[in-house]
Amino acid sequence: MGSFHRGTLRAYLQRLCNSPFQFLYILIQYVLDLVLSPTPPPPDTTLDRPKIAIIGAGLTGVSSASHCVGHGFDVQIFEAGSRDSVGGIWAKVNNTSGLQIHSLMYRFHPSVRWNNGYPDRKAIVTEIEKLWKRYGLQEKTKFETPVEKVYKDELGRWIINDPSHGRFDGVIAAIGTCGDPKMGHIPGQERFQGPIYHSSDLDGREGDAKGKKVLVVGGGASAIEAMEFVEHAKAKKTYILARSEK
């Protein structure tokens, strides 16, 4: 047995001894991938089943496209953003963001393999990127192509924006519910002398919070992450402004 295989076997045995539940979780994911993941088509394969238009290159769009391609359907992904938009909302949020539910309930494709129960943003985007590349979706994604119109031609085939993009037998809308950050406005805030940031724009802002009094507006998931951020940044004091005590 080669040194690489011995090292790999040793690493798995060490993980089994040190973290048996984590090892079991990883093993289950390996089996799910082996049994349930559709086989990626070889490069340059002609997919002869109906062609599907997929709107959005976020988690749902990439997952849908990989399933379609794996089962012989050709696809075209339309993404309004740039290459950096693969992953959708997870490509835009802070590095401190992560799952607030166990990853066992966040399996968007059988091939996804989490290393722990609560992966962070980078781990999630990495899995989405791996899936996007595994099924050869790089050549099937059109970036900076916002979808403004979807309609049918006289034969009932779908057209995205205009006929230059081709015709499709089906459409999957995977635009999600989260878009670009939207800042609220509080009357008189223009007279405030300190910085004001959206909760999605906190990376690298630790210096602005250290030793300062910070007000977090809201009580949802993003507000909780913002509170964790100012705590780690060693803010002098943190105030929370929420609509209710729940």
Do you know the CATH architecture of the largest domain? 3-Layer(bba) Sandwich
**Which geometry do the CA atoms define?**
flat
CATH topology of the largest domain: FAD/NAD(P)-binding domain
Number of strands: 9
Helix content: 25-40%
Which series of helices and strands comes N to C? HHEHEHEEEEEHEHE
Would you tell me the overall average pLDDT?
Answer: 90
Q: How is the biggest beta sheet arranged?
A: 4 strands, parallel
Q: Mind telling me the C-alpha Rg?
A: 22 Å
Provide a short characterization of the protein structure.
With 246 residues, the chain is of the alpha/beta class. The chain has six helices and nine strands. The longest helix is centred in the first third of the chain and has 17 residues.
Secondary structure elements and pairings:
Elements: H1 3-18, H2 20-36, E1 49-55, H3 59-70, E2 73-78, H4 121-134, E3 141-142, E4 150-152, E5 158-160, E6 167-168, E7 170-173, H5 206-209, E8 213-217, H6 221-232, E9 237-241
Parallel strand pairs: 1-2, 1-7, 2-3, 8-9
Antiparallel strand pairs: 4-5, 5-6
Helix pairs in contact: 1-2, 3-4
What does this structure look like?
The protein has 246 residues and is of the alpha/beta class. The protein is 30% helix and 15% strand. It has helices spanning 3-18, 20-36, 59-70, 121-134, 206-209, 221-232, and strands at residues 49-55, 73-78, 141-142, 150-152, 158-160, 167-168, 170-173, 213-217, 237-241. The radius of gyration is 22 Å and the shape is flat. The chain starts with a helix and ends in a 5-residue tail after the last strand.
